[in-house]
Design a protein that fits this description.
Layout (H helix, E strand, L loop, with lengths): L14 E5 L6 E2 L2 E2 L3 H15 L3 E5 L16 H11 L3 E3 L6 H8 L6 E3 L7 H5 L2 H8 L4 E4 L21 E4 L1 H15 L5 E5 L4 H11 L5 E4 L3 H8 L14 H14 L2 E3 L3 E5 L12 E5 L7 E5 L1 H13 L2 E5 L12 H12 L3 E4 L3 H9 L7 E2 L4 H7 L5 H4 L5
Parallel strand pairs: 1-4, 1-7, 4-6, 5-6, 7-8, 9-10, 9-15, 10-11, 15-16, 16-17
Antiparallel strand pairs: 2-3, 12-13, 12-14
This protein binds adenosine monophosphate.
């Protein structure tokens, strides 16, 4: 059954506690990437327009249940106020008498931001008492923090037991639409691109997507474990020899299901990868096996062409994980070429969280994709078919 959203309920004049994801990077007190704040604006603006009393809460970083100035949300309040063109009241705690007094005194359409919920140990423990305190100021709870929806914390799950209504904001609604509906009944061909470091991190996602995809394109270091599973050599490439059986099962499942499962036919290899220094030493293109002393760092030009051709035919693309060590420009070409192909394809294109989003942003093609997930771990768990506690706790239509 579909989850209720902010459009399904009456919010005018009501106190609405909104769990947003304001876990933004901060350096010397300045916000270095405000995309999460921008992401929360549609929900906040809707509530303001409907004249709700908007009380925002979020976590920032890992203060481990203690008050720590390093992780204050104060700078976010300022930034948000500029973006909204209206004052945002900042409170230096998220529970307690001062918060209750301020909440009682709010006028319709006012926006207030509470201090970091993780300054209290009860947040991550999902302590019912803390959740109850948090809920005290609200008639309605809105969850719009997809990035933490896979965690049952007080501000994502616990709080729902102490308010009259709990619904999703626009951001979560969109995540569910793209990661859920659009991949459950995809327009075909449905091409899944998977990369990144480890098979072990993504095997559950691969398994779940083999039930839905027409074609799977593998890149990143993950490809080398698959190469080992097929009896190939990978030299000094990052691989997981203890996951060969896991990789073999995925290859078998792909065969059974008639899913086209492509591995890189060529790779860019280097003899001295220094991730910190951002250098590779000598590089060359190698087809097939990789010899000792060399390490695969990107998919090669033939693979790029092959993958581009598959992506061009797609009607739905889901992409998670870079094709190589994209942080180093010389090993980013495969990832950027795939990004371009995805952006140019006439299809629904969905970028699953974390590094893939960073990679597509760096490639310069992020404007041309249909959807970029805001959740790393949450988007993987959701694609695996797991129920996210922060979503499961919301009211159904
Ligand atoms: P993940 O978080 O699993 O999506 O992995 C992303 C990380 O995988 C990035 O930091 C990449 O640098 C890394 N990665 C991708 N391909 C390779 C490779 N061939 N060798 C080493 N690391 C890689």
């Amino acid at each position: 059954m579909a989850i209720k959203t902010i459009e399904d309920i009456e919010v005018t004049g009501k106190r609405v506690l909104v769990r947003v994801d304001f876990n933004v990077p901060v350096k010397n007190g300045a916000i270095t990437d405000d995309s999460r704040i921008i992401g929360a604006l549609p929900t906040i603006r809707h509530l303001v327009e409907k004249k709700a009393k908007v009380i925002l809460c979020s976590h920032l970083g890992r203060p481990k249940g203690e008050r720590n100035r390093e992780f204050t949300l104060q700078a976010v309040a300022l930034d948000l106020s500029t973006k909204l063109g209206a004052p945002v009241t900042f409170l230096d705690d998220c529970i307690g008498e001062q918060v209750e007094i301020a909440a009682r005194g709010m006028i319709d359409g006012q926006v207030m931001l509470l201090e970091n919920v993780r300054f209290h140990p009860g947040e991550e423990k999902n302590d019912p008492e803390f959740a109850k305190e948090l809920a005290k100021v609200a008639d309605i709870f809105v969850n719009d923090a997809f990035g933490t929806a896979h965690r049952a914390h007080a501000s994502t799950e616990g709080v729902t037991h102490h308010v009259k209504e709990s619904v999703a904001g626009y951001l979560i609604q969109k995540e569910l639409e793209y990661l859920g509906e659009k991949t459950a009944k995809p327009e075909r061909p449905f091409v899944v691109i998977l990369g990144g470091a480890k098979v072990s991190d993504k095997i559950s996602v691969i398994d779940a997507l083999l039930d839905k995809a027409d074609t799977v394109l593998i890149g990143g270091a993950m490809a080398y474990t698959f190469r080992l599973a097929l009896g190939g050599e990978v030299g000094d490439s990052l691989a997981e020899p203890d996951k060969i059986d896991t990789a073999k099962s995925a290859l078998e499942k792909a065969k059974e299901k008639g899913v086209e499962f492509l591995l890189p036919e060529d790779n860019i290899v280097c003899d001295k990868l220094d991730f910190k220094a951002g250098t590779l030493g000598e590089t060359k293109v190698v087809e097939g096996d990789i010899e000792k002393g060399w390490e695969g760092v990107d998919i090669g030009p033939k693979t790029v062409e092959r993958y581009k051709a598959e992506i061009a035919k797609a009607k739905t693309v889901l992409w998670n994980g870079p094709m190589g060590v994209f942080e180093i420009p010389e090993a980013a070409q495969g990832t950027f070429a795939v990004a371009q192909a995805v952006a140019e394809a006439d299809c629904v294109s969905i970028i699953g969280g974390g590094d893939s989003v960073t990679a597509i942003k760096r490639s310069g093609y992020s404007q041309s994709v249909s959807f970029m997930s805001t959740g790393g771990g949450a988007s993987l768990e959701f694609l695996e078919g797991k129920e996210l506690p922060g979503v499961a706790a919301l009211d159904r239509k």
